[in-house]
Structures are given as structure tokens and as C-alpha cells.
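Notebook, p. 212. Picked up where the previous page left off. The plan for this session was modest: take the two constructs that came back from the sequencing core last week, fold each one, and keep the raw output in the notebook itself so nobody has to go hunting through shared drives later. Recording the first one now, exactly as returned: residue sequence, then the C-alpha cell string.
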Amino acid sequence: MGFEKDPSPAEIEVDREYGLETEHALALAKKTSDEFSSPIIKDDGDWTSGRDGRLGLVIRRLLGWGVEARGILPVPRAQRTDRQFSKIFFIWFSANFNILSFSAGTTGPLIFGLGLRDTCLVVLFFNLLCCIPPAYLTTWGPKLGLRQMCQARFSFGYYGAIVPSVLNLVTMSGFMILNCILGGQTLSSVSNGHLSWSVGIVIIAFVSLFISFCGYKILNWYERLSWLPVLVVYVVALGLGGKHLSNPSPAEPATAASILSFASTIAGFVLTYSSLSSDFTTYLEADVSSFKIFTYSYIGFLLPIVPLQCLGAAFAVSAPLIPSWSSALSTGSVGSLFATVLSPVGGFGKFLTVLLSLSVTANIAPTMYSFGLSFQVFVPYCARVPRFVFSVLATVIIIPLSIIGAHRFYSTLTNFLGLISYWASCFIALVLIEHLVFRRHRFTSYDVSAYNQPQKLPLGVAALAASIMSFALVIPSMDQVWFVGPIARHTGDIGFELAFVVTGVLYFPFRWIEFRLVGR
């Protein structure tokens, strides 16, 4: 692929224009360590010493093996040459074709008391809507060569972008924790008590670390294939358990409040991909049709999420009627439910359960990949550090937190998904209005070379003010376990909808004033 070849003199000139000599120095290091000289590597004898430091030697060796080091530095147009556009479909498809999507669907009946029909209708219509923003933002990567949080600097400003970056780090950590819990519990369920949840969590985390550590090439290869064994698991599980599925009437009729609160959970599941959408498309050919990338992405989100969430709801409403299923779910582990469903086929069922436990790695690995990119925006000095270092950092963070949260999975899942939809809606409204209104949908209006120059970027006051002030209405509209706002008592949780609308409305005048005052 084009981005893996040694840079030509013309490409080096392009990088000088963008201020990216560092990345070409790293690329040259793949050819020979004698040529390795990067301004990010200092001769002070520590880990950053390119020629003498031990870690510098390790970094050169890793680069020679094809491990990707590039972080938030823009990908120059000359290196945006990848024409395998279907990659982005498999990234999103595999990332969502796992047990977490199934678990999100079970919250409709188990947490919000909805019947199967109402759950599936919410899943269908809200996913049809909420998959649009992350799919659209993937189209920006090939045009700008910028990672998603770097793009945010053109709305939030250099320092203001630290705020969504921190929120994105928290969000990604939360998703990695949920996936590690699910994967660890599922892996443990086949061991007859010989493998604890904690050990299962550690295994899942380290498998994900390996994939993420290697970077773009290995990640795409893995995502292209990882969904296949998971499909086999679901087909067999449906074949074995399908005869037990039923559609009993819910104990109480669905209310608007319960439907909207569940919708907020579903929205949080997919909207938050918007904060990392373009991280995986920056190497794609710049002239690719945006409609093609959008279509690949939209279907990649929608195709796995809707069927699996509906399948999760179907198993959840049927479980109380089947003692063995009900007993498995009472442990708080969806993995135990699958182990029970697959138990009629003996050892093969255990093998399939192990495969299902590993399905979460297809979500954790790309999330780890983006974790490092957001961290580099959060702490700009860390742009000097190779991207793969942050995959290790993410692993160190999520393992202990996953072990702590493993026994409170469902409360963790619903609280987390409901909360993250609020900030994600604010973020989406801001970047869309900035691009579609103030920049008139013109990618040429972005001075990519200014991505790390605060004096050439917006102040970010308008974006932060609009986001913060929107919560004057969002907070009263929240419906969480620990807080129910006065508006939400009558309507259910409409926080993410109001976050999008109010932030967008406020950003119009605020950004116009900001531009008039500072001219950028």
C-alpha cells in the first residue's frame, strides 16, 4: 500500500509544507537505522534517544516490522493512496458484530421493561437515525488526512479541543471496560469455575493490545476476518435456542418515558463513534467518492447493530420462561446465557463460546488505536510519542477497572451509555455546523498545516460556550438511575436530543461573533 513505501523527495516536500518531517524520519527508519534522525528523538540517553537509547532501538525494530507509529500528524495527500475502500465497512461491521451489541439489546426488556416489539422498533428507528453522523464523519478522513480529534480543533480551537478529547478518552475507556467485562465473563463461563472473570478480562485485554499495537495494517486485516467465526456462533445459538424464543406480553404497557430512556441508551451506543470516525480513513485515497465511504460506513454500523440488538431482546424476553436461561442471566453475565444455550452440543458449544468471548477484541482493538490519538490531542506534547505506546497505557487503565466493574455490568452499561450520548450530541452538532454552515462544506477552507498552531485556529470559546450552556436544558431532561430531572419525569430521557438542538442553535450566533472579533 502506498502509505507503507519509502517517501519520495516530492513527498518530503509535501511533509515540510505540513510540518511533518518527523513522520518521514520514522518512515526512513524502517529502511535503515543509520538514517534514523527525527526531531522528536533527543540525544539525552533516555527512551527518546534515537541513536543511543535502548527504547530508540526498540522503536526502530518495531518500525522495521511494520508497526505503525504515526499519531495525530496529518497524512499528506501523497500518502493517501489506499484504494481498498471496503476496509471501513469491515472496521465498523466487526467492531459491532459482537456480544456487546447483543447485550445492549437485552437492556430494553431487562432494564426498561419493554416488550419485544417496542424494543425492536426503538432499535430499528433510532439506529437508522443515529448511524448517520458517524458514517458521515468518516468521509472527512480522506479529504483532510486528519484524525477526528484533530479535526475538532477547527471548531473547538487548539486548547478547547482538549475538552472533547478528555470526554472521548473517558468514553473509549468505558467501552473497552464493558467489552473486557463481557469477554472475560464469557470466557470464564466455559471453564467450570477454573478460570475467574478477572483472568478472562486480562486475556481479552492482552489479545486486543496485540492487535492495536501493530497499527493500521494488522488492524484492518483482523477486522476483515474476525466477524466470520462470530457469525457461526450466532447461527448455531439461534438454531439451538430459536425453538424456545417467544414473545410474551410485557408486565406493563410501554410508556413514552421508558421508550425514550431506552432510546437514549441506544443512541449512546452508536453516536459516540462520531468522535473517532475519521481515525480509520485518513490513508484512503483523497479523491474517493464521499458517498461511497458514507455508504460503506453506514451499512457497516447498521447491519450488525440492529439484528444483534433485536436478537438480544428476543433472548431476554424469553429467558424468564426457561429456568436454565433465567438462572444464567441472574448471574449478571450474558456469557453464561450463551454457554447455556450452546451447552447441548457439548465441547463444540464451549469452543463456540470461547470464539464469542474473543469477538469483543474486534471492538477493543480499534478503540485502543483511537485512544492514543485522543491522548495526543489531550496532551499535545505526547504527539512526540509513538502511537502504539498509548495502546499499552489503555491496557494498564482498563484491566483493573474492568475487574472492579465486572459484578455490576448491567448498571454500568445503562448508566454509561445514557450519559455519553449527551456530550456526543453536542460534539456532532458543533462540527457539523462548523463544516456545513461556516465552512460551506468546502474542505479547502481547512488550513491543515495549522492543525498544531493555536494562533491560526478558532479560539474555541463559541464551541465551549454553546456546549456548556446547552446543559441548562439537558440536565433537567436527564433520566438516570442516580438523577431524574423535572422534565424527564414527564417525558423520559430526552437529553441527547436537546443537547444536539440547543448546542446547534447557540453555536450559530456565538461562532459568528467569535469570527467577527478574531477573524478565524
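Okay, moving on. Second construct, recorded in the same format:
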Amino acid sequence: MGQFFTKYFPNVVPIWSGDGGVTQAINETLYMTVLTAVVAGILGIVIGILLVLTDEDGLLANQPFYFILDKLVNIFRAVPFIILLAIMTPVTRAIVGTGIGPTAALVPLIAGTTPFYARQVQNALLTVDPGVIEAAEAMGVS
């Protein structure tokens, strides 16, 4: 099978193997995707819970903190990713040490994805039926 490709597609074989090949690109894509999903998911859950807790009806109502956090989430959600990538280049260089490569792409990917997770968590928690919360409190859940 390898001889078939070498004979009929001699220019394609180097692309699919070796350094800089398709397998390396797939590995880098999976690395960026999985790490972004995990880190942004954790940060999004934390920020989403903070948004619910510090809301005016929340358990830890803190209007100034909620206002700032809510506006940050809205701003980061509104900025297109390519602009966020360019704006965050100095921050990326400070954190990672370089502005290019898959590891450098993680910083803007996480910054761009976290607000979406946070808003989803906030909306999910705010749509819980108050009767369910009241029943849980009646059963002794704190």
C-alpha cells in the first residue's frame, strides 16, 4: 500500500508523514481543543456560579462584583475571536513566552470560550424551578 502512494502520489507522501505532517496538525488540534475545553469549562463553571451567587437575588448578593463580572463576560462574548487573538498577543507572550504555536493559541482560546461556558452555567442555574430548591431545603440540603 505504501508503494502505491509513493508511486502514484509522490508529492502527498511527505505531507502525511514526518515533521509538519497532517498527523502533527491533528495532534496539535486535539491538544488545543481538549485543553481549552477542560480549562474553559472549569473556569466557566466557577464564573457562572459566581454570577448566580452575587446576583441581587443570590445568596452572596454583591451588586458591584456582579456588575463588573457580568460586563466582562458580555464584553468577551461580543468580541470576535480573531480580534481577541490580536488584542491578547502581549498577554499571551507574557504568560507563555511566545505569540505563536499551539500553546500560545490556548490563552485566547480559553479567554474566548470561558464566557460562553459561564453564561450557559448561569442560565442553567437560574432556570432551576424554585419548587425544587424549596424541596431540597426542606429535606435539609444546605
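Notes on construct two before I forget. The mean pLDDT is 90.
Flagging for discussion at group meeting.
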